[in-house]
Fold this protein.
Amino acid sequence: MKIAILSRNKNLYSTRRLVEAAESRDHAVQVIDVLRCYMNITSLRPTIHYRGEVLDGFDAVIPRIGASITFYGTAVLRQFEMMNVFPLNESVAVTRSRDKLRSAQLLARRGIGMPVTGFAHNPDDIQDLLKEAGGAPVVIKLLEGTQGIGVVLAETNKAAESVIQAFMGLKANIMVQEFIKEAGGADIRCFVVGDKVVAAMKRQGPEGEFRSNLHRGGAASLVKLTPGERSTAVRAAKIMGLGVCGVDLLRSNHGPVVMEVNSSPGLEGIETASGKDVAGIIMQHLEKRVAEVAHRQSRSRTRGKG
Ligand code: ADP
């Protein structure tokens, strides 16, 4: 196969590992910086140009699109899709997963466990919003935050009110969420490929920190999932329409609750913690999916023509 990896930096661990996995399986692979692509979207034959060349002949595309370039990154991915290149994750699913409110609404509608969550922009009754989330302690989040920045634990209603007022002053969208104390500052990253969790790790925040993000000093270790956690992660991935993703869970008193579904999950933490060749597993999945689609297309082309 000829595979495009949409990534801004070919030296990133995840990108390097995917290149290695592709090459070791005799695929041709090119890392493409989406921000340098330009496209002809008007012609009958959609094209993508990159460094003065027309990108052509790709069988599959692996999007590794950072949150800050979602808009243009998904536009380039969509252009690949229009050229009939198979995407590891579809552009609509990537866009969907980047919108925390939309993701939560979709998951909740399908009965996926989540912390009790209120969304707001400029609430006219903060007390009522807090009551909806079960009252203090609550976690207040900026919708646009990543890597744990903009995630605050308010232990009292008074503190929660001040934080909400401060965020309101920034004219930001916020989320007020039940605090899952029993998670003990840990979360579980389930790495889903196709319809399986292929690796999992527990991330534990440092002493006194409720956020487990590795960027905030958290440590990763191997974890054994319960069947309920596995099925929750797989169902969440399916609802979001993502072939490959990281599903973050908290262990709550009322079972696993989903925090987030990440469409470009990093490979370094999970491969180190699990000791598994996750890049190789992704590549195997991609080969299988591309073959399935090619088979379906060849059948529909010959149908009725014999
Ligand atoms: P980000 O997307 O910025 O990483 P998250 O919503 O994942 O933000 O929150 C960061 C971390 O804070 C989570 O990984 C988790 O450890 C902790 N956390 C977030 N929300 C809650 C909650 N409602 N209850 C308990 N811990 C939480």
Remarks:
- The CA atoms of residues 140 and 176 lie 5 Å apart.
- The longest helix spans residues 278-302.
